[in-house]
Design brief:
The chain is mainly β. The protein has 2 domains: 147 residues, Jelly Rolls (Sandwich), CATH 2.60.120; 164 residues, Jelly Rolls (Sandwich). It is built from 3 helices and 23 strands. Strands 1, 3, 7, 8, 9, 10 and 13 form a 7-stranded antiparallel beta sheet that branches. Strands 14, 16, 19, 20, 21 and 23 form a 6-stranded antiparallel beta sheet that branches. A 4-stranded antiparallel beta sheet has the order 2-11-5-6. The protein starts with 14 loop residues before the first strand and ends with a strand. 37% of the residues are buried. The model has no long low-confidence stretch (mean pLDDT 92).
């Protein structure tokens, strides 16, 4: 007899809620707007509960005499903050659209397990459990009024199991020297599980054309205070589920090349996303993730990569790095 998955038909004891915000041009004129230098609380509710979906339009300035303007430069500085259980320190504090893996508002359209971008809108299905309380806010630090719409769907629960983690992000920006450097992408000092991450590498040097040199980094996970990595991907494109560089924009529902942008001097900006369901990175005490390039000049390598050799001869190249690691852990 064929086994049939009935999970979607099972009835729940939870009650669904939805909160809309930022759009006073409809039934609810009292809704707040994203005014210059303003912070708007999108959701402020008691638990126990779990956020199941966040939907946002792309924000646009309303400049007198102009139509809607979708240029990403207007939204890069908008920030998202999430506070759990009345904690004064946000568990998530990062650029708003970067949270949706729409890095700098410039990712191409994509659809993965937890995140998607469609025309003029973004969605997150990454759940956020909370036991006592949750507050979600958006800040507009610019001098321009931004127009848009957001709704957040959540479930009111009777109880959150004790072994349930809270959602956190480790958001980083920096630079790395190639091939004589490395850069830390996350440092987590408690039990947890990594369930998604994205990485953006950018360098306007002809050596990085099509993502060459940038893709040569190894991605090393040091789990539970170990001195050597127990998980090591031998190439950044492999870390995100691709091979032999970054040939084109791709997405299979779990991984995506979000952006491949040629730069003025022949270099490139590459952005990649990986979501994890059955392949979470689990750890009991700690997790440190390094993007490492120094192995490329190890004397044991029989043939030095020609592009790496040229980068070494010109005294390294400097790549800009942006990264976000999404993980569940017990409340800090």
């Amino acid at each position: 007899m064929k086994n049939i998955d009935l999970s979607i038909a099972r009835l729940s004891n939870s009650v669904t809620r939805l909160k809309a915000s930022l759009w006073p041009n409809d039934k609810y004129p009292e809704l707040p707007q994203l005014l210059p230098k303003a912070t708007v609380v999108l959701l402020n509710v008691d638990g126990p509960g779990v956020i199941t979906h966040m939907h946002t339009t792309r924000f646009s300035p309303k400049i007198k005499g102009e139509n809607w303007n979708w240029d990403g430069k207007y939204i890069r500085d908008v920030r998202l903050r999430v506070y759990y259980d009345f904690n004064k320190t946000p568990a998530i504090d990062m650029p708003f659209f970067d949270f949706f893996s729409d890095i700098d508002g410039e990712s191409n359209y994509f659809s993965t397990t937890y995140f998607s971008k469609v025309k003029r809108a973004n969605n997150s299905r990454l759940i956020m459990p909370f036991k006592e309380h949750i507050k979600i806010e958006v800040e507009n630090p610019t001098d321009i009024k931004l127009s848009g719409y957001i709704d957040i769907q959540w479930e009111k629960l009777n109880k959150i199991p004790d072994d349930t983690g809270y959602l956190y992000t480790d958001y980083r920006q920096g630079t790395v020297k190639i091939p004589e450097g490395n850069i830390e992408l996350c440092q987590i000092s408690k039990k947890g599980s990594i369930i998604a991450n994205w990485l953006q590498l950018s360098c306007d040097d002809i050596l990085c054309s099509e993502g060459a040199v940038l893709c040569e980094g190894n991605d090393e996970f040091y789990l539970d205070n170990e001195s050597s990595p127990s998980i090591e991907y031998l190439g950044t494109e492999d870390f995100f589920g691709f091979s032999w560089g970054f040939s084109e924009l791709q997405c299979d529902g779990h991984i995506a090349i979000l952006q491949k942008k040629e730069l003025q001097n022949g270099g490139v900006t590459i952005s990649m996303l990986r979501t994890r369901e059955n392949d979470k990175i689990n750890f009991s005490k700690s997790c440190r993730l390094l993007l490492e390039y120094r192995h490329e000049i190890n004397n044991q390598l029989p043939n030095l990569n020609p592009e790496i050799k040229k980068a070494l001869e010109q005294g390294n190249i400097i790549a800009s790095v942006k990264s976000c690691v999404y993980y569940y852990a017990y409340k800090k």
